[in-house]
Amino acid sequence: MDKNGQLTFSDDPLLQGTNEMYMFIESGDFNLAVKKLDELLTINPDYPGLAESYRVARFWDSRKKNLDELSKGKETADFLMKQWEEFEVFARDKNVVHTTAYQKVMRYVFFTASEHYITAFNDRENPTDNLKLLMQLGACLVRIAEYQHTIEVLEYARSQYQSNACILSLLAEAYYHANDIPRSLLYFREAFLLNPQEIDLPLLSSKPIIEAVELTKQKKPDCKDIREWIPIVAFIHDIFYVKRQLNSSQLEQLKKDILRLEENYQTLNKDRVEQSNIIPRLINRYLWMMDYYEFQHYDQQSLLDIRSRLLAIDKELFEGYFQKKSFSKP
To answer: To which H or E segment does residue 159 belong?
Structure first.
């Protein structure tokens, strides 16, 4: 107690033991965590967090022997990722997702996996394998909020390998949390242009993505894959507001993509079109072209043509947007 006779945390006989137990979990000493929990539960089985921590520690303690027998590198990292998938199902079933023990073991699993992916990357020479390892490493680092490390790893990956939507989306997430908002928004938009289906949406928790996801669910509740429509809804609501200057090759690629998608759109029947990703990908490319003709190389007639085409494709989505927007030259 303090001088006034008030109860303080230091008077709680279980607090120190509980903190010690959490340290064991975060460091991967699951057997010690279980032993400490046996001791704490004997004192007070109803103490907050002990029952949930016991389930977490027992789950991972049962796998530690197999883990310790694996070779360093990809084998260990992949084992941890596979067990994490199983653990997430277990955690939801046992209602321990929002507990301190869950957070502690997540840091252990993803930090340890990231170290082994680094080992695997350093030991390999196959470029394809290396790219995959770097993406897996980036995902691990994002999960444990090591954003500056994520940026270092994935900017290296981006400099060495062809652009990849997964890498760009993870970089965007990391840059957002590192307070480089313009770069974050630009990378998000580019990732969704490259290939929305390569983006691991559950890994992304930044505010722009959360807002875009919620708005997309409202605007397109029946869409086949929400990732395809996110860049469109984010554009309309000015969430992805950072624009890139297109070079000549990027502009030509956009035009080729639009021609190809328009051809498919015109030849497929309505059911086939609705079951595909043609419409959102076509719209997204028109939006990039619209930016080009509005901000980079102003062309009012091209803007009006794009406006007419977008209204023809999805009037419900774009009518309100274009009512507020003018293409008159300043």
So the answer is: helix 147-160
- Domain ranges across the chain: 243-330
Residue located via tokens 């270092």: 152
Q: How many residues does the chain have?
A: 330
For residue 302 the two structure tokens come to: 């091209």
Distance, in Å, from the CA atom of 153 to the CA atom of 171, rounded to the nearest integer, reads 9
Interval 208-243: pLDDT, tens: 999 999 999 999 999 989 999 999 999 999 999 999
Weakest-pLDDT range from 48-52, 80-84, 102-106, 267-271: 267-271
Place of tokens 């999960």: 143
pTM of the entire predicted model: 0.82
Pick from 21-35, 114-128, 132-146, 225-239: least confident = 114-128
CB pairs under 8 A, 24+ apart, for 57-61? 57/21, 57/24, 57/25, 57/30, 57/33, 57/101, 58/30, 58/34, 59/87, 59/90, 60/25, 60/28, 60/30, 60/87, 60/105, 61/30, 61/31, 61/33, 61/34
User: How many angstroms separate the CA atoms of 175 and 91, rounded?
Assistant: 30
Q: What one-letter code names the amino acid at 118? A: I
Q: Cβ contacts of residue 155 below 8 Å, gap of 6+? A: 171
The token pair at 92 is 């939801």
Distance CA 33, CA 285 (A): 53
- Whether residue 227 contacts residue 204, with contact meaning beta carbons closer than 8 Å, is answered with no
CB 189 within 8 A of CB 240: yes
